[in-house]
Amino acid sequence: MVENDRVVRGVRTTTWDLPGGQVEPGEFVLEALARELDEELGIAMRGAPEFLFVQEGERIAAGARHHAWRSFFFAVAEYDGEPRAGSEILAVAWLTPAELRDRLRAPYHDSFLSWLAEGGRWFRSRWDDDPA
User: I need a surface site. Which of 10, 43, 81, 130 has the fewest CB within 10 A?
Assistant: First the structure.
């Protein structure tokens, strides 16, 4: 979600995060995007979102791959409704890129923060639960 050079995000439990989720069986990526925006923010996407980039990563635990993932990032500029907190999001806020850099702390946010700073279309990361 992008508006006036700001990005919407929500609080899950005690940390700030970007709206998102997983693609359900039989669902296309854009269908998942529309569903997650409705579930998490109560908004309905209009038109086609702008594809930003894809992140591919792996999480390492106890020295072995715990799981791998692929995240697709989109800018949604046209939507119906106002972003609001719900069952999965405790609070929402419009934040500048500088504010995002201060508040996004999870290892999987690194690619988004890199994209904000430098652009790009593909990122690969590794999240190690047991750093040496």
Answer: 130
